[in-house]
Specification:
This is TM2 domain-containing protein. It is found in: Membrane. By secondary structure, this protein is mainly α. It has one domain. The protein contains 8 helices and no strands. α1 packs antiparallel against α2 and α4 runs antiparallel to α8.
């Protein structure tokens, strides 16, 4: 893969991944062939900032977990009213990391 394309991808999509994972992603993207590049360009990643905002306003209903694709946790959070509020507060601190992990998993499905 062309290093310039990979660097542009990292610059535009770096906020969707944990900072310590970016170097490993760059190395893996440099190794892939051009046939997967079009598929990688079409991936839609969830914005961690948006998931935090959703969590702040509607986290007690589990909408933040539904937003990132954790349907089971979303249902659990909905049925327990956000774990009586405790789970909701914990998610305010953890939802951005969970969103970035989901984005990484989505990219790794294409890469491997």
């Amino acid at each position: 893969m062309d290093a310039q394309k990979v660097d542009m991808f990292i610059m535009t999509n770096g906020k969707f991944f944990e900072s310590h994972q970016v170097a490993q992603l760059r190395d893996r993207l440099l190794e892939i062939d051009d046939s997967k590049w079009a598929l990688i360009q079409t991936l839609q990643f969830k914005d961690p900032t948006v998931s935090l905002i959703v969590s702040l306003f509607a986290g007690g209903l589990g909408i933040d977990r539904f937003f990132i694709g954790d349907t089971g946790l979303g249902v659990g959070k909905l049925l327990t009213c956000g774990g009586l509020g405790i789970w909701t507060i914990v998610d305010w601190f953890m939802i951005m990391g969970a969103t970035r992990e989901k984005n990484l998993a989505k990219l790794q499905q294409v890469l491997y």
